[in-house]
Task: structure prediction
Amino acid sequence: MPRGFFITFEGLDGSGKSTQLRLLARSLQERGRTVTTTRQPGGTEIGDRIRALLLHSITQNVVPLAEMALMFADRAQSIQQIIIPALAEGQIVLCDRFTDSTEAYQGGGRGLGSERVLAMHHSVCGDLWPDLTLLMLPDLDASLARARRRNLRQQTHGADENRFEAEERAFYERVFSAYREIATRDHLRVVTIEDNTSVEAIEQRILAIVTDRLTQLRT
Result:
């Protein structure tokens, strides 16, 4: 059985990446493809516990290296429990965040630098990189505003994932810049989508990109 296809969605919270992941999964399934979706941090029992710790606003004083290590602990579990088995079955795997997020948030935002993050990736993840990364980079301020509105709505239902949204704008400027650097460096893997058009228009663009890559895979 041929190996599956690994697609990640990246971008700031509020960029629309999670919505577009769900829409792509639905479109692919309607076309008869077998799809596994997951997210990082989270997606496994251990990962969900790590997610709750890292994203809850009550969590304070986490040093950047510990934050990065926890992200990779979650990733190691996800790779072995979800991603590799699904790829081995020939499935399309859609993952909300992967190592690019760690490079942008901890490497750029926290100032750890790309070298440390990529060294940890090599140690923990080996040579596993996405076949395609869809990087959602709409306007920075619009993304932050949407993320904060969403988290306020979630809080009314007892959920709290506001820890990163409490960061100052300068933190997100560093994250945004780091994402741009990743896209330039890995331009064959990373497709940047900066559209501020409708959800439906972006959905169709992403479907066209993915369909083209999957067609190339078969030829």
